[in-house]
Design goal:
128 residues; alpha/beta; Rossmann fold; four-stranded parallel sheet; 5 helices; 33% helix; binds flavin mononucleotide; Phosphopantothenoylcysteine synthetase/decarboxylase; Flavin_trans-like; Flavoprotein
């Protein structure tokens, strides 16, 4: 049964690459399309983003670690975008490493049936 008033939840997973600072633009576009947006940052990405501004924009705390006991759960994701996705996170994800909260979410997504879109941001030397 569907929940009639529940907005679809989009997790935006942000990794530590230059475009991370522009993730607010993606939040705006997602809001325009009716998504409730939850930002998940890798710990390294925290240096690239304006956490307070994103929290004000999304209405949710930026998550970069597993919640502590007693802290509220984030709303469950209907879809996930990884943008920008770093070489580091892409390769750890491919190898089943889940040493960040972001990677833990990505590891669980297939079994939970959550679609994931990935926007790699990797220079040509790393790509090759
Ligand atoms: C200024 C700066 C820019 C970076 N840009 C990129 C990038 O575009 N792509 C990338 O894969 N790594 C980039 N890195 C390296 C990543 O930040 C580094 O590998 C980090 O460990 C990634 O952590 P994460 O995957 O957990 O976010 C950059 C690092 C710095 C300091």
């Amino acid at each position: 049964m569907t929940e009639p008033d529940r907005r679809r939840v989009l997790y935006v997973i942000v990794c530590a690459a230059g475009p991370a600072g522009d993730v607010g633009k993606l939040v705006t576009l997602a809001h325009q399309r009716g998504w409730d947006v939850q930002i998940i940052a890798t710990p390294a990405a925290l240096d690239f983003i304006d956490t307070a501004a994103l929290e004000a924009q999304t209405g949710h705390p930026v998550r970069s670690d597993y919640r502590k006991p007693g802290e509220p759960r984030s709303p469950k994701a209907d879809a996930i975008i990884v943008a920008p996705a770093t070489y580091n996170t892409i390769n750890k994800w491919a190898n089943g490493i889940a040493d960040t909260y972001a990677l833990g979410i990505l590891a669980e997504a297939p079994n939970l049936g959550i679609p994931v879109v990935v926007l790699p941001f990797v220079n040509t030397a790393l790509v090759s």
